[in-house]
Design goal:
two-stranded antiparallel sheet, 10 helices, 10 strands, TIM Barrel, single chain, 8-stranded parallel barrel, alpha/beta
Length: 276
């Protein structure tokens, strides 16, 4: 069996769990609070939220009510587009921390590559790192040209680039993946389950059945074997549990290659490919 590291060491030395729970479109209120508590009780130690999700306060409540020590949990949130710019980035981080009820987050991400503001924004991100309000800083939805621009101008390189990834768009995103890896930036996948669009793909079902696993488990494991950090989203307790049970099997090299051949340039959300 191929061992998968359950933690990844980021380029600044911070240890990040390789599998996390996402709360995109998880409604504010008791459901998100319970989802976070359920995930933490099942062994998750990585929770990924964002200002635009509108549920940072509920994530904070779920964390506090879980009874698990803060320092054992890796918490990510993200800066929204309308908050980009130097001063507004600093304010937005303080607002997110207040909603979460935290003194710091483990990872603060620029959610999208906003034209004209992203370099000023990154200077503010570097200050947040220096001030201890984030243990690590990174970006999300940055394609190759956005990364190169940032790398050429940053004092501190991003630790993470979070992008939509699955076998159905992995080749499509190869330039961003390669550029990230070349500069020691950890690639992190969101929407690894294709927002459900491909979970009943007969090609995927055939492979999953050979391992006695669900297609969701197969998709998560495939990315982990590619050394990609994975954020999987669900509010269903049984699916949250299943999504975490991916460390007890190995996809063969042959099946890994077969699944990479599933690429069809699938993007299930807004596509940053042509973002200026």
């Amino acid at each position: 069996m191929t061992a998968i590291k359950q933690h990844t060491l980021l380029n600044n030395g911070v240890k990040m769990p390789s599998l996390g729970l996402g709360v995109f479109r998880s409604p504010s209120g008791a459901l998100t609070q319970q989802t976070v508590k359920t995930a933490l009780s099942l062994g998750y130690r990585h929770i990924d939220t964002a200002k635009i999700y509108g549920n940072e306060a509920d994530v904070g409540i779920g964390i506090r009510e879980s009874g698990i020590a803060r320092e054992e949990i890796f918490i990510t949130t993200k800066l929204w587009n309308s908050d980009q710019g130097y001063d507004s980035t600093l304010r937005a981080c303080d607002e997110s921390l207040a909603l979460l009820g935290l003194d710091y987050v483990d990872l603060y991400l620029v959610h999208w590559p906003e034209p004209n503001k992203r370099l000023d924004t990154w200077q503010a991100m570097e200050k947040l790192l220096t001030d201890g309000k984030a243990r690590a800083i990174g970006v999300s939805n940055y394609m190759q040209r956005h990364l190169i621009e940032l790398i050429d101008n940053a004092k501190v390189l991003p630790t993470v680039n979070q992008i939509e990834l699955s076998p159905y768009n992995f080749t499509f995103r190869q330039d961003a993946i390669n550029t990230s890896k070349e500069h020691g930036i950890q690639v992190e996948a969101y929407s690894p389950l294709t927002k459900g669009q491909k979970l009943r793909d007969p090609k995927l079902i055939e492979i999953a059945e050979r391992y006695g696993k669900s297609t969701a488990q197969l998709l998560i494991r495939w990315l982990l074997q590619k050394e990609i950090v994975v954020i999987a989203k669900s509010n269903n307790p049984e699916r949250i549990k299943q999504n975490h049970e991916v460390f007890d099997f190995t996809i063969t090299d042959e099946d890994m290659v077969t699944m990479e051949g599933f690429n069809e340039n699938l993007v299930t959300g807004w596509d940053p490919t042509n973002a200026p």
